[in-house]
Amino acid sequence: MLKYSTYKSIYSEPVKKPVVSAGTRSAHFSINVKRTLLVALLLLLTCTGVVSAFTSSNNSNDSNSTQKKALKTVIVMPGDTLWEIATEHKPQGKDIRRYIYSMKQINDLHMSSIQPGEVLILPE
User: Fold this and answer.
1) How much is the pTM?
2) 103: buried, middle or exposed (CB in 10 Å: 19+, 13-18, 0-12)?
3) Which of 27, 71, 92, 103 is least enclosed, having the fewest CB within 10 Å?
4) CB-based contact 71:122 (threshold 8 Å)
């Protein structure tokens, strides 16, 4: 015959809950506070890094735009070609083909065709 017939009969003594003293409860609380402060600090540092990354990229864009503003620009009129514009505006002693190549690079032109009304940036 079975010695223990039910689940309760296996454990003759009742299960006692652990007693939490005031000292261990405050220590547990301080660990949670430390973790929370650490997470908050990490979030703060991350957000600061993201903000500084965006401001530095904006500053570099501003410097690029001021450099482009400092360069001369030309508005393309009907019948104008890159060759004619380059002939009028190239520095003396510079090869016109190299000047046209520079114009195409600065203005991100893949072909030599230009349209009236376009604003072209002239290289120095």
Assistant:
1) 0.44
2) buried
3) 92
4) yes
